[in-house]
Automatic annotation (TrEMBL):
Residues 350-440 form the Putative collagen-binding domain. It holds the Pfam family Collagen_bind_2. InterPro entries: Apiosidase-like_cat_dom (IPR025277), Collagen-bd_put (IPR024749), GH (IPR017853). This is Glycoside hydrolase. Transmembrane segments: none annotated. It comes from Paenibacillus oryzisoli. Residues 15-346 form the Apiosidase-like catalytic domain.
């Protein structure tokens, strides 16, 4: 049995380029995350293990969790996180007769560690700070306490904030970030912001912010607010990546909350269409091709661990989370990770100059990721792709078509790596009929895209 864990390659650090994450020994790390926001609130230990094993088996390696969703609601064992709604009084008592809130949190983090999964922990959700308005000093003491509690866990990453703008209660987030960094200096940290905002707006130059995170959110193009330029991004989550890549100094960035599978467009109109596997796939490929160091997936039922006995849950959810674990989008995310790790990972760079003409508008937009010995191009609609060749090594290029829905690759021969050439997928062009064109320097002898990197 292979008991190797990711952190056996050393702790996670930012690469020298400032664009990606890697292990201390140089092994690249592709973040494939899932949002399990309410796992500590809604699950028993048996249910938590079912979830964690499922996500491990589907190729995920990071689970995003709220440590504290609110102060006064109990977990599945009837325990609340704090006594008297006081951040200075964590309910962490050990007892043989009951499971405290924090001892259960310890168990879940331990289970994730045994499964080889990182946990990206939100210390306290933004709505708690908005509603209870704890002062910065109390938050700092809590940050020091929780940072010390988990400082020796090899699988912990910190998500300061929690669905909130960084300028709301900014002192709280600054004190929280600094306290956790002081207590747990070996853990990476970012800030999980409000929808359609990004951490770099407020905290890019903070020492505790190792990488940026944005929440592209759940709105469709049709739901953009024309009067508010900040919302005009719509579904173009790649624009957040492009903005973060322009920041100095360079820091990695990731979409920590795009549109969830099975959630209504815009969240609150339950009559609106729901995001599908095609949509969540598009968000993932657009972000990573634009330069994100990985991606986080989410599902409406899974993130809130909804059960049918609860009736109608948040955002009109009626699905059982157990059933939703196997939705198409959840199963397809691993193909993206396997694709990028099948080629030299940290040399890749977004490159629009390889595209002949206009990259395209909205769903028709093309994306190119360029390495020293390969090129990948993504089309969500299966449109033709015309490229300027000769931008990577080799006189001849092996041509592949990679299917994001299945993870399978088909060889399409060899071409001269020069001049301009049009590549056409063997399929009808339509939204959701997405393809990745992969061109390799023939002399490198790479295996088919999606297979482990070999020469």
């Amino acid at each position: 049995m292979n008991n190797h864990k990711s952190w056996d390659n050393g702790r996670l650090v930012v690469s020298e380029t400032g664009r990606f994450l890697q292990h201390a020994d140089g092994t690249p790390f592709f973040w494939l995350g899932d949002t399990a926001w309410l796992i500590l609130k809604r699950t028993t230990r048996d249910q938590a293990l079912i979830y964690l094993r499922d996500r491990k088996n589907k190729g995920y390696n990071v689970i995003q969790i709220m440590l504290v969703h609110d102060l006064n609601s109990a977990n599945a064992y009837g325990r609340v996180p704090f006594r008297d709604l006081d951040l200075d009084q964590p309910d962490a008592e050990l007892s043989t007769s009951f499971t405290s809130y924090w001892s259960y949190a310890d168990e879940v983090i331990d289970m994730a560690e045994r499964e080889g999964l990182y946990v990206a922990l939100v210390p306290v959700w933004g709505s708690v700070v908005e509603y209870y308005s704890p002062n910065a000093e109390a938050t700092e003491r809590y940050g020091e306490w929780v940072g010390n509690r988990y400082k020796d866990r090899p699988n912990v990453i910190w998500l300061n904030g929690g669905d909130i703008r960084g300028n709301d209660h900014k002192d709280v987030w600054l004190h929280m970030g600094r306290a956790i960094r002081k207590a747990a200096p070996d853990h990476l940290m970012t800030f999980h912001p409000y929808g359609r905002t990004q951490s770099s707006t407020w905290f890019h130059n903070e020492d505790w912010l190792d990488f940026n995170m944005f929440q592209s959110g759940h709105r469709s193009y049709d739901q953009m607010d024309e009067a508010n330029p900040d919302t005009l991004v719509g579904e173009d989550n790649w624009r957040f990546v492009k903005k973060d890549w322009a920041e100095v100094p360079a820091k990695p960035t990731i979409d920590g909350e795009p549109s969830y599978e099975g959630i209504p467009h815009g969240l609150h109109n339950l009559e609106a269409p729901r995001w599908t596997a095609d949509d969540v796939r598009r968000y993932a490929y657009w972000a990573v091709f634009a330069g994100a160091f990985g991606h986080t997936y989410g599902h409406n039922a899974v993130m809130q661990f909804h059960t049918e006995e609860r009736g109608v849950g948040a955002y009109g959810c009626t699905r059982s989370w157990i059933d939703a674990l196997n939705d198409d989008g959840a199963k397809q995310m691993v193909h993206l990770k396997q694709l990028f790790l099948s080629r030299p990972y940290e040399e890749r760079m977004p490159n629009e100059t390889a595209i002949c003409g206009d990259p395209g508008y909205r769903y028709d937009r093309l994306f190119v990721s360029l390495g020293k010995s390969y090129l990948m191009a993504y089309t969500y609609t299966g449109r033709s792709i015309t490229l300027r060749l000769g931008q990577f090594s080799g006189k001849r290029a092996a041509v592949w078509w990679f299917n994001p829905r299945t993870g399978e690759s088909d060889s399409a021969g060899v071409v001269d790596n020069e001049g301009t050439r049009e590549f056409v997928p063997q399929a009808v062009s339509a939204p959701g009929n997405d393809w990745v064109l992969v061109l390799d320097d023939v002399d490198q002898g790479y295996a088919a895209p999606g297979l482990p990197l070999s020469r």
